[in-house]
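Forum: Protein Structure Q&A
Topic: Joint prediction for protein chains with partners

I've read a bunch of threads here and the consensus seems to be that you should model interacting components together rather than docking separate models afterwards. I'd like to see that in practice. Below is the full input, 680 residues plus whatever partners are listed. Could one of the regulars post the assembled result?
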Amino acid sequence: MFLNKIIFVLLPIIFLMLSYSESYALIEKNILQLSINSTPVELYEPIKYVLSLGGKRIRPCLALMAHSIFSEDNTDILFPALGLEVFHNFTLLHDDIMDNALKRRNHDTVHVKWNDNVAILSGDAMMIIAYKLISKTNKSLLPLILSIFNKTALEVCEGQQYDMNFEKQHVASVKEYLDMIRLKTAVLIASSLAIGAVTGMASEEDVEKMYLFGQNIGTGFQLQDDYLDVYGEQEKFGKNIGSDILSNKKTFLLISALNAKDRILVEELKQWLARKNYEPEEKINAVTNIYSKMKIDTITKKTAQDYFSKGLEFFSQVSIPNANKNKLRSFVEKMMMREY
Amino acid sequence: MFLNKIIFVLLPIIFLMLSYSESYALIEKNILQLSINSTPVELYEPIKYVLSLGGKRIRPCLALMAHSIFSEDNTDILFPALGLEVFHNFTLLHDDIMDNALKRRNHDTVHVKWNDNVAILSGDAMMIIAYKLISKTNKSLLPLILSIFNKTALEVCEGQQYDMNFEKQHVASVKEYLDMIRLKTAVLIASSLAIGAVTGMASEEDVEKMYLFGQNIGTGFQLQDDYLDVYGEQEKFGKNIGSDILSNKKTFLLISALNAKDRILVEELKQWLARKNYEPEEKINAVTNIYSKMKIDTITKKTAQDYFSKGLEFFSQVSIPNANKNKLRSFVEKMMMREY
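Posted by a regular:
Agreed with the consensus. Here's the joint model:
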């Protein structure tokens, strides 16, 4: 009897923390069952298409995992988590029009498969669906959840605008770049963790810590992405190595290199940026070489690592037992180590 | 003392109903003061531009007026009303890209003045700002307000998609057209009135009646617009008379005419639709003539009038004293009579 009681108390606190794979399964199962089967089909087909293309579902999984370390009942977080994923996919859909991207997750982008108008309007509808899902939660928490989400959603737009400005700008500082990726990428990761904490009934202070945890690891993930696009292994990374170099994309690596002290190497880099005729392999090798001589690889890895450490420090300050944090922490650590 | 008390009781109930011009002044004053002064300017300038172009502010004024017949304190409706106007302007902004419209309220559209990317992203930000404003209300009412707004916002997207489908479709029925304008135009009018009723603490039944009032007059307004584009007086209407005829736009008039029984006139109409070379005046006169012979003018006016009557009937069922309804009713009646 006594033993039973202990088990009863411990079970929800320790054993019900969700792992990434459990969260992922929950999201995959539910996202394809969203009742997006309405008419007109021209509006809803592209949405189903986009949501069926998969991806790692990082944001909703983080929301579920964050919630599960504070509370064992998923009811209040499942729909907001799905909403965060729908919102993220909406931003990709509209970004792909603006960037004129042809492929997304190895499939044709919506504006290619259909056309720009379909992509604009389906994206708009996706944002509304995201809000619908986010609103399906504990009514008393809705004002707080919405205020976090509204602020974040607007920041993501600001980040995308800064990103587009960047591509036209001649000079950009590392600080400006870091602030851009904070807005474009990190705040949605941060919000996912914060909203999970809110629905888990975490204290205001813990919600704030979870947000800062997310903002830091989110920035770290983007720096890691920039790094892997140059130094990743082709098969593991899944994208073409060097694509950022070929498109002169202003990543952390390129901006750091352009701001480096070695004038000769900077000049050499600028020549490659200006050059119109080259073999792709030739340019990738040459620019990678310049980066390596400038130790940009080490700098990038170190900067990402600093963000990860800072993020984990905030996580460690969250006022729940360490044992509850294991699954979420180990997922984040695994992400930090990824080479793809 | 006794007299004071009576005045104190009567004032909020009868004298504080807002008129259209009072509501309009309130909206104009506040919409330009929205703190949309943030960076990046590329994102926020187009939003300020769009909101400064004016317009009748019908939706927010209806929300304010609806609220004021139930409650004297505007606090809970002012921001949602502004949100409804921002949302409406967001839909115009994105529709203008999709329709490739060059002018809006006699000014260059955003995608012309800037470019498509700016128009897409600023529109996205506007939708989020709309949600932010709509969320600034009585917390206990937020779930209901959001559920009305989310449903409506998605329906507006559906309406826009049906509208685009229509332009490609060869045959369309009057019923399909009426359902399209219900979604594209009427439901947002309906929601504005319903949300005003909700923040005014109206009963569920009265909220529903206000919604149906709005849905019917909203449909009537669109039919009237279609009518005035052909039969309006140039100076009063403010748009070019006959523009729908020149662009073969599938309006209530054209669809009714194509579905008319007089085969000879229908054939004549179809020839005009197919014709490539003509003087604008010639085509406008010829098609208007066909419409008039078919009595499409009378049919359109009658159909609009039926919607108006039905709407006013729902309004009359709202369980508040008739005196409270005067200002809103007289505004709607004035709109019904407008010739511009």
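The radius of gyration of chain A is 21 Å.
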